[in-house]
Amino acid sequence: MAEPIVKIRELTKLYSQGEIQVTALDRITLDIAAGEFLALMGPSGSGKSTLLHIIAGVDRPTSGQCLVQGVDVTKLNESALADWRNHNVGFIFQTFNLIPVLTAAENVELPLLLTRLSRTQRRKQVETALEVVGLADRAKHLPRQLSGGQEQRVAIARALVTDPALIVADEPTGNLDSHSAQEVLGALQSLRKDAGKTIIMVTHDPKAAAFGTRQIHLEKGELS
Amino acid sequence: MTIPTFILKNALRNKRRALLSISSGAVSLFLLVTLQVALRELTLPPQSAGAELRVAVRNKISITNPLPVRQRGIIEKIPGVEAVTPFTWFGGKYKGEEGMSFAQFAMDADKLHSVFGEAKMNGDGYEKFNATKDACVLGKITADKYHLKVGDQMTLDSTIYPGSLSFHIAGIYFGTPDDRNMLFRQDYLDESIGEPGYVGMWWLKVKSADDMVPVIKAINAAFQNTSAEVRAESERNFQLGFISMLGNIKTLIASISTVVVFTLVLVTASTMSMAVRERFRELAILKALGFRRRELFAFILAESFGLAVAGALLGIGGAYCLYTFGDIGKMTAGIFVSFEVTPRIMGVAALVAALLGIIAAVAPSLSVARMSVVNGLKTLD
Ligand SMILES: Nc1ncnc2c1ncn2[C@@H]1O[C@H](COP(=O)(O)OP(=O)(O)OP(=O)(O)O)[C@@H](O)[C@H]1O
Ligand SMILES: [Mg+2]
Predict the structure, then answer these.
(1) CATH code, domain carrying A104
(2) Whole-structure pTM value
(3) Which of B9, B278, B285 is the mutation pick for testing A, counting most A CBs within 10 A?
(4) Ligand 1 pocket test: which of A11, A40, A49 has the largest number of ligand atoms within 8 Å of its C-beta?
(5) pLDDT tens for residues B300-332?
(6) Cα separation of A150 and A157, whole Å?
(7) The domain containing residue A70 runs over which residues?
(8) Per the domain annotation, does A1 fall within a domain?
(9) What pLDDT, in 10s, does the model give residues B163-210?
(10) How many domains does chain A have?
């Protein structure tokens, strides 16, 4: 079997609040293969977001290892981690993903402002990304002029515009009606199929999870 | 889109707040410039040509104590003295006005040109002043204010001497830093009040700048241990003596300026804090996308700096235009004749604005630095 894109070993995250210690993640060990669409399920408070945040390099574990494409993200410093995120991870959050004063195209362009790409190259990549999610005609719209599903698809376009290997999504359909959710899930699914992206998606919804190639369940910080 | 346009869009997202913040900066800086110019005008008397050769001689006890006329002969003999004239405060009120709106002095008509040579007059003003006893010359500002012209008669009620005196205007002078005084003849005053043998002060002109110090020393020494000891000093020092009386006004202006700046710091800082707080989640998303702390700092700083500088441009520019192209004499009812917005004052105000922009960015930058992506994302969730 090929080397997994994400390799997690004995990952633990503790929160201490005064006397009480909360174990958000309890010695998790998990491999995610390249090209997988992993659906991460579990009840509220089970540690799904925490796990996702550590894999994506925005949170740090208390102990354990998390290698993404061979890089131990837990060992990078702040600035190196920021740079690593910019190149290797695409983010989709549940709500308020977009900057309200920027158009769809400008929102998608944001991560590219950190690269050395020229203005025309940036515009081309933005166009391509919006086409992939089927919103080329909405490039000039502001977030408030888009439906919830369209907003999430713009967020998907922004997540893929830097061409990262890994895309993480925390309940991307949590606020959507079933029709919009279908659109968003379809877009994610085609990213995996057509572009070979690895996707990790947190969801409560079994129907959404069914779009994944594998489902795993977290329960009180442990895989079940 | 580029980073500057991104910053601009952020700064202008709440147009009303941006406008209010820019306006408060503009108003405060306008006020600051105004106060600084006023302070400068008050502490820096207009230097007239010829001032460096003029000496004022007053009674050592106080400027209100008169000097005996016999002093003139002694002063005139001191080497280096070119011309001497009495200069006596009349304290007249014009047309029954409440207070004195311009100063009047009695002097020698034939010394006007030699001692106060920078006063220019059209026509035969100097000749007529010499020829007619009840002649007077009037500064252009005052003449314009009361619509007086050559040949007109004017009557003043003295607050010092009994009764009133009437004069014929022989000339309107201009070209001095403050064309407001009325000058008339000492012999006319003496005659009307019965030759008292006293004058208010002496003003004199020395031959060259090198004579200044020896002449002042000689005059001070000449009347030592007499019944009327004098203090002779250069025109500049004489005026500064007046200004030291303005000490309280200086302190007042300085403290108002401090309050203005301090208030502006608070307003700008709270505006920036608000602007950043309501964008906390967005800043967390930018962090997640790979923006580093220093880039987020730069965004906040640029926005804060931009708002402060926009306010500064409006406020300082507005003050400059108003005081340069407006009629300051009219605006201040004659209190100020010149109101120069100097490059130095504009520079200081711009510097205050720039510092302000930076200071206002500090607190929000610190809170953004402390924010982790995870915590930032939780706000508003
Ligand atoms: N900053 C924190 N301080 C203390 N405890 C925390 C903190 N963040 C998370 N936790 C705790 O860690 C556990 C896991 O939280 P996490 O957000 O990962 O859950 P989740 O599975 O994403 O839940 P949900 O489905 O509601 O989003 C919870 O018990 C939570 O209370
Ligand atoms: Mg969660």
Answers:
(1) 3.40.50.300
(2) 0.73
(3) B285
(4) A49
(5) 999 999 999 999 999 999 999 999 888 876 777
(6) 10
(7) 6-223
(8) no
(9) 889 999 999 999 887 788 999 999 999 999 888 899 999 999 999 888
(10) 1
